[in-house]
Structure formats: structure tokens, C-alpha cells
Specification:
single chain, mainly beta, Tumour Suppressor Smad4, 2 domains, five-stranded antiparallel β-sheet, binds zinc ion
Length: 181
């Protein structure tokens, strides 16, 4: 998951999720992203954001048309730019927006797998249909079944992930928010 932070007229950050399909970035104040799959004419006059997969990981690529200039982290960038967590994006006439790839921990249903998977916390198997949380930091899967008969709150059992230092707090929103200059 990726999102763009942009200052709203009151001076606070608004967060817009970046769709997984290719989008035209028509504006950053407010963020205006139009999926190219929805019949938007690809006029090559707006920057585009494309999500690609590389070595099993999501990579977000910014494509910039020839007549357009964009500054990433304060430097004018070329026509192809891989966006990274916390990058600032700016073009003349606007305030900077920020790109973020932080993921939120959320409860999901385990779809099952041919290989046995054990929870790093309770060491018991995680089975198809169990409620789980995938650690946003290291992708390790934990039980998160508050109700009987399982009652295994393995993700929130400790204040961090069972396999890495990632916080297991599920109450808050995104942890990284740009600082207002
Ligand atoms: Zn467990
Ligand atoms: Zn982890």
C-alpha cells in the first residue's frame, strides 16, 4: 500500500491512497489521481504513477512527460523516477506532497497454504480460515483471533511483532507523517 500526503487548505495533512492500477497524477493540491484503466485518455501531459513488481516487492514508478518538471526531495528529477518512502514531490505552483509506503497492520483471513505455517508467538499452526495479522515490517503471519474457541491474540500479545521490532499497536493510524516545514 502506498499513499500521498498533501496539505489541505487548513494546513493539515490529508492522506490519499495510491491505487494499484496505473494512475495519472493530475494534481497534488488536492491530490487528484485518475486510474488510466477507467478510460482516462493517456495524453502524456500529466505525470503517471505505475505500480510494478520487482523481486516480489512492489515498486512505485513516477513517469514524467517531457514538458513537465518535477522535483523529488528538492532536486529536479529525470523522466523516470522510482518513488521511495518519505520522498517529497513538488512541482512549481504547489506545496510539496509526500509519498509514503507505510502499511497498516490489519486483521485478515488466512487463505491457507500447502505448507504448514506456525505462529511465531504461540508456535501453533495457522490454518485456513484463521484470523491473522501480517506484520507490515517483516511479513510474518500471526494469529489474531480474539474469540473462542481459538482466543489467540498473538499479534497484540506483546508491544511488537513476534519476529521483528515492528510495533503491534493497532489503534493508531500511519506512524510516519511529514513534518510541516
Ligand atoms: Zn499464535
Ligand atoms: Zn515483523
Amino acid at each position: 500500500m502506498a499513499q500521498i500526503f498533501s496539505l489541505d487548505p487548513t494546513g493539515s495533512w490529508s492522506v490519499t491512497p495510491v491505487p494499484t492500477e496505473p494512475v495519472q497524477l493530475a494534481g497534488i493540491h488536492p491530490v487528484d489521481m485518475r486510474p488510466l484503466s477507467e478510460g482516462v485518455v493517456n495524453d502524456f501531459r500529466h505525470p503517471e504513477i505505475h505500480r510494478c513488481e520487482y523481486a516480489g516487492k512492489a515498486v512505485w514508478v513516477l513517469l514524467i512527460p517531457a514538458q513537465f518538471s518535477i522535483w523529488v526531495n528538492g532536486r529536479r528529477t529525470g523522466h523516470i523516477r522510482v518513488l521511495r518512502h518519505r520522498d517529497s514531490i513538488w512541482w512549481p505552483g504547489a506545496d510539496a506532497a509526500f509519498f509514503s509506503t507505510e502499511k497498516l497492520a490489519k486483521v485478515e483471513i488466512y487463505p491457507g497454504h500447502s505448507e504448514r505455517l506456525d505462529c511465531p508467538r504461540c508456535k501453533k499452526p495457522i490454518l485456513e480460515g484463521h484470523q491473522i495479522v501480517v506484520c507490515p515490517g517483516c511479513s510474518t503471519i500471526h494469529h489474531m483471533e480474539p474469540d473462542p474457541p481459538l482466543r489467540l491474540n498473538c499479534w497484540t500479545y506483546s508491544d511488537h511483532c513476534g519476529a521483528c521490532p515492528y510495533s503491534s499497536d493497532m489503534s493508531g493510524g500511519l506512524r510516519w507523517v511529514p513534518e510541516v516545514a
